[in-house]
Write a structure and sequence with these properties.
Length: about 600
């Protein structure tokens, strides 16, 4: 391990330079080891009970940080050199040794040329392991006639070269690893096949680059050679939570009343028998808003919970936002201050919009904590590697975390109008296109279920972010979204929260929250819809249903709805303008809003 003199933002220690990620810094390729390598004394602890309650036992810690210029005793992060194999730009010699000059590590060959990391590494298909390609071993293997006894038993370990020649063909055929000791030469085109490394007898070591080999711990999964910078080499799993007073959703409060009823244990004990139905009726008669069917369903469910961590967090946040919106002006203090107001009674000019948008909240201060749970490699179904691999990983693991402060605007839409709209056959059919594509893709199943309300509100959120980048003074990449749009929850949600989340002063400049004022929110939303009414790629865009990564966007492209991927919860996927503004055969959730305004302006 060695110190590197390179500054990172705190947020970059989670993404894209988090634990297990390959980082190119100052011409070198490095990888951050797990948090057991951190100096705990210089890594301050971050408090967020809401987030830790979902992550489980552990500690949230911010990466060691400093202000000003780095010095010898400055708090710092450790990085591991990976891949270890490099070639010289001057003499093309290939090696994995690191030289020293006057006690300091150098990245130069004996000839004076700079050392460049090899382009390919070996990744485990299902174990999420990664390792160097053993270039000497690979160069002397193969099934061609050139593998003679002299090649098999070659011991010229320091005679490898990485040569490039257009005379040898194009593409990977022109890149070869050559041994000058036995004159063996092998092109990289024989490296990239799915079973190429397995045929050459190269096995997975079952570790991460910074870990020591574990005797007896064998990984049976095959290796595949991939480019060092491929995005699939690192699939991080992050979780974020707003630091808000935890509010219990209405459905949970009702469920607690049912469970605490003196007769509820009799319903559970009878296990759905005739006596259970009778007692459930007694309980329903005493608790308002509860039916016997609800009591029986709650008794049958028991303590089982299949809810995801993120949805569980969002349920509490939704309940907190709804409570704040109902209280009007917020005179409190702390890290969650929201001024809520209902949509004012307006003329017929805006009735199509105000009938769908219930209320808006000016979030004057909000704190968000983000944590890195761990990562996977190559495949979304591969083994999960936690962020802490040290001896405390089971009792009290350390999660890399960062806290950010900001402001935002919360939009709450009418649940009744949303439910009536999303059951329309044309709307369901449109959303089912994305649902089917999500099901056939292994990695896409990690995304939210693209039910109509989610796709519509997600697209509206992107349209607002694009408009706010012009009106608020913030860059588009400085804005974040949080979508509350699920009809399969006990408490249905239909809202959007757009906020800043920066670790510096840009998070609280005030330019965003002022646009949530009653006289500015409606014009802002109308301007966002007007911007998206005509895309520069129309009619191709509006008529399309096959755009984006894995075709997980319908009528949405860079000209109308896409934003910075760091601002989006789903990486610019699950978007469709037709479900917002309508199309030839699809009624949009905000259909006719622009037409009504234009008719009133130009009668």
């Amino acid at each position: 391990m060695e110190r590197i003199l390179h500054d990172l933002r705190l947020s970059e220690t989670l993404s894209p330079f988090g634990v297990g990620a390959i980082v190119d810094v100052l011409g070198e390729s490095l990888m951050a080891p797990d948090t057991s390598w951190w100096d705990r004394g210089s890594a301050p602890e971050i408090s967020c009970e809401r987030l830790l309650s979902r992550l489980g036992p552990g500690v949230l810690r911010q990466a060691p940080a400093h202000s000003g210029r780095a010095a010898k005793g400055t708090a710092h992060l450790l990085y591991w050199r990976f891949p270890a194999w490099r070639y010289c730009e001057g003499c093309t010699k290939l090696s994995q040794l690191t030289g020293k000059s006057k006690g300091r590590f150098t990245n130069h060959c004996e000839c004076g040329g700079a050392l460049v990391p090899m382009r390919y590494v070996a990744v485990c298909l299902k174990g999420s392991h990664i390792q160097d390609v053993p270039w000497f071993k690979w160069a002397h293997r193969g099934n061609d006639g050139g593998v003679t006894d002299a090649v098999r038993f070659c011991r010229a370990y320091k005679e490898l070269k990485f040569v490039r020649s257009s005379r040898l063909g194009e593409g990977l055929r022109s890149l070869r690893v050559q041994c000058t000791g036995c004159d063996r030469s092998r092109p990289l085109s024989e490296l990239v096949g799915r079973e190429s490394l397995h045929r050459d007898g190269i096995r997975c070591e079952g570790t991460q680059p910074w870990e020591d080999p574990k005797p007896g711990d064998v990984c049976d999964h095959h290796l595949v050679a991939v480019q060092r910078g491929a995005t699939g080499n690192y699939l991080a799993e992050r979780l974020s939570a707003l630091d808000i007073p935890e509010e219990q959703p209405q459905s949970e409060r009702t469920a607690d009343l049912v469970r605490s009823h003196v007769y509820f244990e009799k319903v559970v004990a009878d296990n759905g028998g005739p006596q259970a139905e009778m007692v459930a009726g007694w309980i329903a008669d005493e608790i308002e808003g509860v039916s016997p069917k609800d009591v029986l369903a709650l008794a049958a469910r028991g303590d089982e919970s299949e809810e995801s961590q993120l949805l569980d967090l969002k349920d509490g946040e939704w309940a907190a936002f709804v409570k704040k919106l109902e209280n009007g002006r917020d005179h409190g203090a702390g890290d969650f201050i929201v001024d809520g107001w209902r949509m004012p009674a307006t003329s017929d000019r805006f009735s199509a919009l105000t009938s769908r948008l219930i209320s808006v909240g000016q979030v004057r201060r909000v704190r968000e904590v983000r944590a890195l749970r761990g990562f996977r490699r190559h495949d979304a179904d591969a083994d999960f590697i936690p962020a802490d691999l040290g001896p405390d990983r089971r009792r009290s693991p350390v999660y890399p975390a960062v806290e950010t402060f900001g402001e935002g605007i919360f939009f709450r839409f009418d649940e009744t109008r949303m439910s009536d709209w999303e059951v329309l056959p044309e709307v369901r059919a449109r959303a089912d296109i994305l649902a089917q594509r999500r099901e056939v893709s292994s990695w896409a199943q990690r995304l939210d279920v693209p039910e109509p309300r989610f796709v519509a509100l997600h697209t509206i959120s992107h349209l607002l972010i694009r408009r706010l980048a012009f009106a608020s003074g913030y860059a588009s990449a400085a804005l974040q979204e949080r979508i509350y749009a699920h009809s399969d929850r006990p408490d249905r949600t239909a809202g959007i929260f757009i906020y800043t989340a920066a670790g510096d002063a840009q998070g609280t400049l005030g330019g965003l929250v002022r646009l949530g004022a009653p006289d500015k929110a409606l014009p802002l939303l109308l301007a966002a819809l007007s911007d998206a009414d005509v895309c520069s790629n129309d009619p191709v865009c509006i008529e399309s249903d096959r755009q984006g990564s894995s075709q997980l966007n319908l009528s949405a492209c860079h000209g109308c709805a896409l934003v910075s991927e760091t601002s989006c919860e789903t990486g610019n996927r699950l978007l469709d303008r037709q479900l917002v503004l309508g199309g030839a055969n699809v009624p949009g959730f905000l259909d006719n809003v622009l037409d009504q305004v234009r008719r009133s302006t130009n009668p």
